[in-house]
Amino acid sequence: MSDTIEKIKCLIIGSGPAGYTAAIYAARANMNPVLYQGMQPGGQLTTTNEVENFPGYVDGVTGPEMMVQLQEQAKRFGADIRDGWATKVDFSGDIHKVWINDSIELHCETVIISTGATAKYLGLPSEQHYLNMGGGVSACAVCDGFFYRNQEVVIVGAGDSACEEAHYLSKLCKKVTMLVRSEKFRASKIMEERVRKTENIEILMNHDTVEVLGDSNVVHAIKALNKTTGEVIEIPATGFFVAIGHKPNTDIFKDYITLDETGYIINTPGTSNTNVAGVFVAGDAADHVYRQAITAAGTGCMAALDAERYLASKE
Ligand SMILES: Cc1cc2nc3c(=O)[nH]c(=O)nc-3n(C[C@H](O)[C@H](O)[C@H](O)COP(=O)(O)OP(=O)(O)OC[C@H]3O[C@@H](n4cnc5c(N)ncnc54)[C@H](O)[C@@H]3O)c2cc1C
């Protein structure tokens, strides 16, 4: 552990849209924010080439470019952006302790958690190939569905989110094939009914994804195994959507912060407050519903304003 302890008025953990927006607001409110970027500087958007739904970018923008711009904007107002990873916290006292890279000890008056979430994938080599190519694999129908208008797509998943995303895609795409790995949906009855009733959604129960097929640049079809008959089929598709869940990056907070059963931080509705006074949450770390850059940015703004009001109340 460290010999020196640094005192910080406002610590922001994470450098996605939530963290940088919080940094912009906190810096402009003279809170001298310090932001640690973590292992993925810029967050999830750095893994996508096309962001077309963030207001203000008329012609769209690449994810990495947008995140550099957010970082520059935060720096312009004096936010202190640093490399490093929060490895441990102690939120038991009035002063919130955070350790960076297991060595630097920070004593913070306020902490904004904006550590995001990580989409789960199947892990097939072909899936990872097209994901990295940006050529047809996605974990976000709302983000990428528009690119597959009037085309045929496949979605894998069986929960509420998968049903929600399949239904969203059915409004844009010619046909949606939904692969469900077992004989049952995990989704609520009402969500299952909704996809079952949608004409252009075909549901294949008890099917495993075997391979994502394409010409090495873009996806052409999905190979799937019917586990009941043993038959292997090829489903023509230009897009493959993976909707098997997300993992919020909140493990280090679990001893102090109230999480839901899947690990999302629970905030007081309408605010960014967590169960610990002076610790706030923004972005996907607390959001399993919307999971968008604009909502992350919006809650980043809320967290900075809530932190500012908390500090003012202590004066
Ligand atoms: C491929 C893809 C495409 C997408 N496309 C769009 C789109 O077009 N439009 C849209 O609105 N949304 C899109 N999204 C969703 C969007 O990226 C997220 O909703 C948004 O990035 C969430 O922002 P966030 O700030 O909460 O967290 P994230 O972007 O997830 O960032 C989390 C940050 O926390 C850091 N971190 C995590 N743990 C620690 C720790 N212990 N210490 C320090 N730092 C830590 C990480 O390094 C990272 O910087 C897409 C997502 C993906 C995966």
Automatic annotation (TrEMBL):
Q: Which InterPro entries match?
A: FAD/NAD-bd_sf, FAD/NAD-binding_dom, Ferredoxin-NADP_redctase_2, Thioredox_Rdtase
Looking at the keywords, is Oxidoreductase present?
Answer: yes
Going by the record, the broad EC class of this enzyme is oxidoreductase
UniProt keyword list = FAD, Flavoprotein, Oxidoreductase, Redox-active center
Needed cofactors, names only, are:
FAD
| Ranges for domain FAD/NAD(P)-binding | 9-300
Its GO CC terms are: cytoplasm
Write down the EC number.
1.8.1.9
The record's annotation in NCBIfam families points to: TRX_reduct (TIGR01292)
Q: How does it assemble?
A: Homodimer.
Protein's name according to its UniProt entry = Thioredoxin reductase
Origin organism of this chain? Flavobacterium panici
Gene symbol of the encoding locus: trxB
